[in-house]
């Protein structure tokens, strides 16, 4: 966490003999921590506001997180689409396992592949 910026005196504070500082408070970890907490909430079905039905499976998600992840979900959950007001929305054209990987990436920014570096380097690509 850091605080940066010029020191500025506020008239009311200066009159009282105190100095006011304005600046920027920032944290490189904030976004990651926030995303991790939202993913934890998703996995525990806390505050999920829509259920997505994908290939026979149900995924509880947060509309805001998915809408922020890209234009497809932003359009899906906008007021112009009928799905915007539904508690359950069917997603077609994608397998549940693939969709789960997509959700994992949306909520964490990463995906752990199912093979190791040794498996990749030992594979015969000829």
Automatic annotation (TrEMBL):
SMART domains with a match to the protein in the record: BTB (SM00225)
The primary location reported for this protein is: nucleus
- The transmembrane segments are none
Where is it located? Nucleus
| Entry GO terms, CC | nucleus
Does the keyword Metal-binding belong to this entry? yes
Q: Which UniProt keywords apply?
A: DNA-binding, Metal-binding, Nucleus, Repeat, Transcription, Transcription regulation, Zinc, Zinc-finger
Question: What is any Pfam family matched here?
Answer: BTB
Keyword flag Transcription regulation: yes
| Name of the protein in its database record | BTB domain-containing protein
Stretches assigned to the BTB domain: 48-109
Source organism, top-level taxon: Eukaryota
Chain segments annotated as coiled-coil in the UniProt record: none
Molecular function (GO) terms for this protein are: DNA-binding transcription factor activity, RNA polymerase II-specific; RNA polymerase II cis-regulatory region sequence-specific DNA binding; zinc ion binding
């Amino acid at each position: 966490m850091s605080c940066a910026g010029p020191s500025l005196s506020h008239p009311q504070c200066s009159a009282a003999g105190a100095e006011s500082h304005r600046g920027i408070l920032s944290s490189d970890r904030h976004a990651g921590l926030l995303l991790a907490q939202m993913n934890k909430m998703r996995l525990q079905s806390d505050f999920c506001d829509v259920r997505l039905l994908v290939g026979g499976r149900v995924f509880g998600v947060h509309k805001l997180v998915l809408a922020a992840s890209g234009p497809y979900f932003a359009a899906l959950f906008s007021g112009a689409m009928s799905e915007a007001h539904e508690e359950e929305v069917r997603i077609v054209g994608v397998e549940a396992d693939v969709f789960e990987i997509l959700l994992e990436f949306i909520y964490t920014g990463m995906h752990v592949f199912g093979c190791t570096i040794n498996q990749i380097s030992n594979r015969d690509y000829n």
